[in-house]
Design goal:
Number of helices: 12
C-alpha cells in the first residue's frame, strides 16, 4: 500500500501544476501584456482616428492649373484626336505628345484652325513652344509673330526662346546669316547634324549649293552620300 501512495504523489503534483492559473507562466504574462494596450499606443490610435475624421483641405489651384501642373490636362481623351473646336487644353495635351508626317491623309496632321489656335495659346504662354513648334503654321505671318516673341524677351537663356529661335532659323527667312554660318561649319568639319544644310537647301538653294558640293566631294562617304541626296532633291 505504501508503494501505491508514493507513486500517486508525482501524478497528483503534475495535475496541480497543469491546473495552476496561466499568470504563473512567464510567457502567458507576456502575452497578456501585449494584449493590453499601453497608454502611448492608445494616444497614437486616438490621434489617427481623429485625423481620419477631418475634411481634406481644398486646393487653391484652379482645375486647369492643377491639370497643367500634373501633366494630365486633356488626358481624358487619351490618344483620341480632338476636334478642331475642342478646349484648347485638350489640343495642347494631344499635340505636344504627337508628331505627324506629311501625307495625303488629312487626319494625320492638324488642321489650319488647330494650328492657329495653338499659335495663339503659345503667344499667351511661350513656355509651351518647345513641345508645340511642330504644330505651328508654316506661313510668313506665323513666323513674324514668333519672331516678335523671341525678340521681345530679353533673357537669351530661356529654353523656349532658344527653341523658337532655332525653329525660325530652320523654317523662315529670319536668322539666315546664322543658318549659313552653321552650314559653313558643317562643310568644313562634317559635324553630325545635317539639318542646317537641309534647311538652307530648301530655303535658299543658291546659297547652299556650293557648300553642298563641298561636302559631296569630301572624304566622309556618309556625308557625301547625304549631300548627293540633297542635290538630287533640288534637281
Amino acid at each position: 500500500m505504501r508503494s501505491t501512495r508514493c507513486s500517486a504523489k508525482p501524478a497528483a503534483l503534475l495535475m496541480a501544476i497543469l491546473l495552476m492559473p496561466s499568470p504563473m507562466f512567464p510567457q502567458s504574462r507576456q502575452s497578456a501584456r501585449q494584449r493590453k494596450p499601453q497608454p502611448q499606443t492608445q494616444q497614437i490610435a486616438s490621434a489617427v482616428n481623429e485625423l481620419l475624421k477631418q475634411t481634406p483641405l481644398q486646393s487653391n489651384l484652379s482645375e486647369d492649373d492643377a491639370d497643367a501642373a500634373s501633366g494630365k490636362d486633356g488626358a481624358k481623351e487619351g490618344n483620341k484626336l480632338p476636334a478642331d473646336d475642342a478646349p484648347i487644353k485638350e489640343l495642347i495635351a494631344y499635340w505636344r505628345d504627337h508628331t505627324f508626317q506629311d501625307s495625303a491623309d488629312s487626319k494625320a496632321k492638324p488642321s489650319d484652325k488647330v494650328r492657329d489656335r495653338i499659335l495663339e495659346a503659345c503667344e499667351d504662354r511661350p513656355h509651351l513652344l518647345p513641345r508645340l513648334l511642330h504644330v505651328l503654321p508654316q506661313a510668313a505671318g506665323a513666323y513674324d509673330r514668333i519672331y516678335k516673341l523671341v525678340t521681345e524677351d530679353a533673357d537669351e537663356n530661356v529654353a523656349w526662346r532658344q527653341a523658337a529661335r532655332q525653329w525660325l532659323k530652320l523654317h523662315s527667312s529670319y536668322f539666315r546669316e546664322n543658318l549659313i554660318e552653321d552650314v559653313r561649319r558643317l562643310s568644313q568639319h562634317s559635324i553630325a547634324d545635317i539639318s542646317a544644310i537641309k534647311a538652307l537647301a530648301r530655303l535658299d538653294w543658291d546659297a547652299a549649293k556650293p557648300m553642298v558640293q563641298t561636302i559631296a566631294n569630301g572624304a566622309n562617304p556618309y556625308r557625301a552620300a547625304q549631300a548627293l541626296g540633297i542635290t538630287y532633291e533640288q534637281a
